[in-house]
């Protein structure tokens, strides 16, 4: 009997060994904290327990946000990184140009998967025609107003100015509208609304296009003529003004909601349309957080399977309701619980008119000249046209310095 | 005797290096030949694929089969289409039976599809940017020794797929003639021995003899090398022309076999990685003699320069050994064996952590490395002193604007340098003055609560300067900052601090002044307490006033402590990144940037690593010169 039992045990071990050998471990890096982290880990646990995992195990590692991008740049090309990482899409261009960091997933992407996303979010993770990741969630800025001061949120820019003027008292430090207009990221909603932008279709910078100049002129009208905006707006200032009830309307994103004081009754609404642009809506930039598969990963198939699960409806529900994220999955907004959430629905409506933030590597050289231009214009040290011309020249010179070949 | 050894060493070094260079060149030539033949085949096939209109359901497979039949010895090739993720045709041995083309690509073949997409993106990038930056033909070496090549397929101006080819491993390695090298090495040494018997012991004559012999041997070997290289090159180009002719001859029959007969362009097949024809082979398949001579000439010039460099090195070695340098070095090392052994671990550590990154930075500064070229070897992107010329040669500091006002170019190196110098001088002056004053006050005998004052006055230095900078920036806010509110309390007008360069400079100056006086105070306090009180007694008895006592006793005693502290402070302030970056961020419009923040922006916002490295080297040289001069002038490190 003994040899028979031994043989049985040996066979069992071999079988288990074979099974274990098939199971892969997928490492995921993310920068989530607090409730987002808990929701994310819940989804991971659900995946590991589900049959979709096919025996693969997903383990997560939370990396601090400040160091995240640098760690990816340093560790992944040398093979010391994860199989998947979750990060915003704006550094995508730089990583792709550096090489051996992010793997394109066009190969795995089929039409049903493509169709589950809000189209503009999929555009955001596409670089030069190739899709490099699956969009997980997005962030856009929208209008946040103090319900006590503003009963009906304005729908057009004309209404906005009228409402804001009534609530502005510069000497008392009260402003009808407050947002970080000197930050190019926030100004983009005006710029894109007029049809302007940073790069044209051929990836050439067009900072001084007539539409951009018009957008600047509108901003200066709000600041100078209408006087509804505070001077030198920093994010800390905007937050403190709103919490003190000294700012009626703020243009900001989901990160702002966590900083609003308990007593303030706030509401969200769509950014107003621009009368000066013929009634076209303000189009903020959206930052899309994508799930990216790394190039040196040994389990790309399994990694993609997890990425697909993460962006699918059940996972999106958990991330939306418990993680307070706004997923890129279209269908999740029809879920009854999510449909009742005014915050999520407001962002969903806003993202329909949002523009993906440019993910080119050259984008990093635009921020500094653009910020300089914004500061020069808002301090009235130059006209919008002149300042934008100067910024355009600098960006062109920088890009030429980067792109030239001997 | 020394000269004989020197000559031997120099000759060995020179001939050895020249031999190694020649071997490397020949190896490179043979692999280049291999690559170029493969590229000609690849592009010929790609042109056939592009011109072939697919009539039947079998698609491109018949074309590839005909190609393989008409050109025996062709390496296996496959055609991948991006639309539909398909393998259109393949002559690879594993793609038979149920894996025969045309079919959809399988999961393991994802790298093929990714490569096709990459080539498409490269072609589009080069077109839209108008510059040739991305590789359009990818050539990689297989681990087993052959090459894998891929070229994009264009139809109607758009890239629709790629042709990939795998060649087998190359055979044999050509080694240069060792006998000639040995002869070139041995001859001068032998001749030197013979002739030195005649010349006697006079150093000058021996030196001259050695130099002449070395030069002669080098010249001989150089000529030999150049001749070998030229022959090699000519053989390469002839082989490429032959291959082009062979392909051009066979291709029409291949195309005829699949009922297509469009025109082909053999002169475009021999091309570089951007699909630009090298134009050494004409349309009829013959070599363009004129261009070939031009090519050979320029290559010979390059080789000549390299050999000249080697020669210079050998001469230096000869001088070093011949005039006794090596002997002295050997004697020192031998005498202090133990000491050197003790410091070896530290030297190793410093080499890895300090010297290697430092010299690597210097190496990068001679290239134009950017984020796009980080994986290229440095020799390929070498640009010599261009970066330094751009930094130091740009004198456009200011110009007159339309209304006559002077407009400064804030990106200019000299403006930034001037600003940094002014920044440093102001800061160190404030720091030393305030620190010394406070130290003198704290040093008064019988001061109450002295420990409390000391702790409070160290606090600015103890708080992390990152936080300090951010708080001060908030305090200078135009409407809600504390500074402006205090000004308003005293009846003044609030200042928009970050609007003008001067006021912006004042904010950074205030912050750094607040941060830097504790350091000076501590140093001064320590030095003050080491001055014996009897000297002051004696001075008072002699009738000296407080000011005279200060000038004659205090200041000279403080010198050995203060001067090094000032040097350190100058270097720190010169490179004070945190304060400038966080308080003013260069506002307005980059006018309050210092050298180090400019370098940072060039590296991490504009991704121009080579330029930023050159900038950093310039900063280093400035500080080095300053430190040396200051040290010599004040003999600071000598005690009184």
What features would you describe in this structure?
The complex is a heterodimer of chains A (406) and B (640). With 406 residues, chain A is an alpha/beta fold. In chain A, 46% of the residues lie in helices and 15% in strands. Chain A contains 17 helices and 14 strands. In chain A, α2 (34-49) links the parallel β1 and β2. In chain A, α8 crosses α9 and α16 (364-378) runs antiparallel to α17 (384-403). The model of chain A has no long low-confidence stretch (mean pLDDT 87). With 640 residues, chain B is of the alpha+beta class. Chain B is 64% helix and 6% strand. In chain B, the strands form 2 sheets. In chain B, strands 3-2-1-6-5-4 form a 6-stranded antiparallel sheet, sandwiched between helices. In chain B, a hairpin with a 2-residue loop joins β5 (147-155) and β6. The mean pLDDT of chain B is 83. The A-B interface holds A 94, 97-100, 103-104, 106-108, 127-130, 173, 202-204, 230-232, 234, 236-237, 240, 300-301, 361, 364-365, 367-368, 372, 375-376, 379, 381, 394, 398, 401-406 and B 85, 105, 107, 110, 113-114, 117-118, 120-121, 124-125, 128-129, 131-133, 368, 370-372, 374-375, 381, 383, 411, 474, 477-480, 496, 498-499, 587-590, 601, 604-608, 611.
């Amino acid at each position: 009997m003994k040899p028979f039992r031994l043989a049985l045990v040996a066979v069992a071990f071999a079988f288990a060994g074979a099974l274990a050998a098939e199971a892969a471990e997928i490492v995921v890096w993310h920068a989530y904290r607090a409730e987002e982290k808990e929701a994310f880990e819940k989804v991971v646990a659900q995946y590991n327990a589900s049959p979709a995992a096919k025996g693969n195990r997903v383990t997560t590692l939370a990396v601090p946000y400040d160091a995240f991008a640098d760690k990816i740049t340093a560790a992944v090309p040398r093979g010391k990184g994860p199989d998947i990482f979750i990060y915003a899409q704006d550094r995508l261009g730089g990583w792709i140009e550096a090489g051996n960091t992010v793997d394109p997933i066009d190969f795995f992407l089929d039409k049903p998967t493509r169709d589950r996303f809000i189209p503009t979010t999929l555009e955001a993770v596409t670089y030069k025609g190739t899709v490099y990741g699956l969009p997980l969630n997005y962030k856009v800025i929208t209008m946040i107003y103090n319900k006590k001061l503003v009963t009906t949120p304005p729908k057009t820019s004309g209404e906005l100015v009228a409402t804001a003027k009534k609530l502005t008292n510069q000497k008392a430090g009260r402003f009808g509208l407050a947002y970080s207009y000197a930050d190019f990221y926030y100004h983009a909603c005006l710029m894109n609304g007029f049809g302007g932008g940073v790069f044209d279709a051929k990836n050439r910078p067009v900072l001084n296009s007539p539409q951009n100049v018009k957008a600047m002129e509108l901003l200066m009208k709000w600041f100078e003529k209408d006087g509804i905006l505070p001077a030198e707006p920093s994010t800390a200032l905007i937050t403190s003004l709103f919490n003190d009830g000294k700012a009626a309307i703020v243009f900001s994103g989901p990160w702002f909601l966590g900083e609003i004081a308990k007593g303030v009754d706030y509401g969200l609404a769509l950014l107003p349309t621009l009368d000066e642009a013929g009634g076209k809506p303000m189009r903020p930039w959206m930052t899309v957080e994508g799930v990216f598969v790394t190039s040196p990963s040994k389990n790309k198939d399994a990694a993609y399977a997890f990425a697909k699960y993460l962006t699918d409806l059940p996972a999106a529900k958990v991330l939306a309701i418990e993680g307070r994220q706004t997923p890129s999955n279209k269908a999740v907004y029809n879920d009854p619980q999510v449909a009742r959430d005014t915050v999520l629905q407001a962002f969903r409506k806003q993202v329909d008119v949002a523009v993906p933030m440019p993910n080119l590597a050259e984008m990093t050289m635009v921020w500094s000249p653009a910020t300089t231009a914004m500061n020069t214009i808002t301090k009235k040290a130059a006209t919008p046209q002149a300042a934008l011309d100067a910024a355009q020249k600098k960006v062109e010179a920088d890009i030429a310095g980067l792109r030239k070949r001997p | 005797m020394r000269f004989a050894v020197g000559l031997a060493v120099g000759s060995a070094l020179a001939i050895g290096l020249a031999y190694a260079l020649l071997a490397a060149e020949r190896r490179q030539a043979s692999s280049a030949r291999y690559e170029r033949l493969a590229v000609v085949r690849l592009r010929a096939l790609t042109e056939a694929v592009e011109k072939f209109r697919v009539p039947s359901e079998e698609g491109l497979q018949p074309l590839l089969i005909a190609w393989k039949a008409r050109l025996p010895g062709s390496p296996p090739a496959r055609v991948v289409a991006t639309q539909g993720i398909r393998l259109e045709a393949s002559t690879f041995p594993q793609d038979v039976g149920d894996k025969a083309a045309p079919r959809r690509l399988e999961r393991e073949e994802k790298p093929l599809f990714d490569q096709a997409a990459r080539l498409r993106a490269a072609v589009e990038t080069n077109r839209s940017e108008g510059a040739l930056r991305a590789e359009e033909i990818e050539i990689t070496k297989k681990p087993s020794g052959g090459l894998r090549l891929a070229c994009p397929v264009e139809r109607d101006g758009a890239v629709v797929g790629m042709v990939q080819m795998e060649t087998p491993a190359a055979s044999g390695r050509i080694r240069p003639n060792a006998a000639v090298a040995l002869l070139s090495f041995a001859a001068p040494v032998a001749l030197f021995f013979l002739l030195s018997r005649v010349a006697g012991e006079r150093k000058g004559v021996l030196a001259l003899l050695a130099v002449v012999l070395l030069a002669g041997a080098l010249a001989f070997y150089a000529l030999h090398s150049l001749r070998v290289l030229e022959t090699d090159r000519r053989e390469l180009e002839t082989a490429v022309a032959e291959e082009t002719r062979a392909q051009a001859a066979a291709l029409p029959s291949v195309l005829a076999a699949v009922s297509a007969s469009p025109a082909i362009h053999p002169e475009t097949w021999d091309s570089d990685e951007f699909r630009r024809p090298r134009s050494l082979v004409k349309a009829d398949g013959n070599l363009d003699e004129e261009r070939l001579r031009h090519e050979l000439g320029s290559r010979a010039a390059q080789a000549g320069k390299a050999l000249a460099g080697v020669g210079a090195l050998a001469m230096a070695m000869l001088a070093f050994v011949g005039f006794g340098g090596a002997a002295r070095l050997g004697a020192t090392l031998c005498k202090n064996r133990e000491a050197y052994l003790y410091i070896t671990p530290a030297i190793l550590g410093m080499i890895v952590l300090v010297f290697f990154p430092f010299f690597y930075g210097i190496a990068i500064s001679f290239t134009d490395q950017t984020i796009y070229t980080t994986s290229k070897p440095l020799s390929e992107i070498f640009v010599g002193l261009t970066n330094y010329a751009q930094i130091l040669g740009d004198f456009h500091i200011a110009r007159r604007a339309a209304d006559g006002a002077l407009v400064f170019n804030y990106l200019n190196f000299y403006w930034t340098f001037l600003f940094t110098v002014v920044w440093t001088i102001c800061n160190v002056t404030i720091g030393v003055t305030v620190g010394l004053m406070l130290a003198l006050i704290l040093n008064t005998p019988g001061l109450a609560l002295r420990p409390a004052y000391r702790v409070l006055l160290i606090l600015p230095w103890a708080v992390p300067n990152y936080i300090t900078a951010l708080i001060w920036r908030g305090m200078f806010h135009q409407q809600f900052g504390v500074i402006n509110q205090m000004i308003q309390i005293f009846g003044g007008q609030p200042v928009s601090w970050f609007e003008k360069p001067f006021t912006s400079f004042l904010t950074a100056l205030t912050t750094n002044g607040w941060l830097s006086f504790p350091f000076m105070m501590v140093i001064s306090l320590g030095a003050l307490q080491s001055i014996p009180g009897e000297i002051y007694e004696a001075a008072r008895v002699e009738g000296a006033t407080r000011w005279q006592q200060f000038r004659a006793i205090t200041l000279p005693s403080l010198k050995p402590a203060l001067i090094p502290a000032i040097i350190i402070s100058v270097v720190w302030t010169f490179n004070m990144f945190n304060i400038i970056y966080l308080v003013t961020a260069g506002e307005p419009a980059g006018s309050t940037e210092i050298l180090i923040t400019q370098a940072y922006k060039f590296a991490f916002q504009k991704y121009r690593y080579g330029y930023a490295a050159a900038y950093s080297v310039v900063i280093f040289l400035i500080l080095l010169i300053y430190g040396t001069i200051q040290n010599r002038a004040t003999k600071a490190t000598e005690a009184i």
